[in-house]
Amino acid sequence: MYQKYKDQGLEMYFIIHQTPQFKPATLAYCNQVRTANGLTMPVLIDPDATIAQILDVSGPVVDTSLLLEHGARKLFQQQGADEAVIEALIVSELKQ
User: Which domain holds residue 79?
Assistant: First the structure.
């Protein structure tokens, strides 16, 4: 989705705060995730979950999808990723 909508103003970030072993994320681990998943969007390292706290992510942070509008108003939060739902929200917001 990032490649599809980035030229229309979508900013998307993949944020990693811990490894599967529940240890703080490292730059090396983030690079492994980026490569293994073929990510083209920016990958941010957040080893102390500061970003999750700032964005008021409720519930488990692991595998959480969060959609914000400009100004950081939360539009959507979901454990896991239902790509069809997320894409529909992105399209709707980009039209505004």
Answer: 2-95
**Using CA atoms, how far apart are residues 30 and 32, in angstroms rounded to an integer?**
5
CA distance 51 to 28: 19
Count of the separate structural domains present in the chain = 1
DSSP of 17-79, one letter per residue?
Answer: -B-TTSPBP-HHHHHHHHHHHT--S-EEE-TT-HHHHHTT--S--TTEEEEE-TT--EEEEEE
pTM for this prediction: 0.73
| 19-51 pLDDT per residue, tens | 889 888 899 999 999 999 898 888 889 898 888
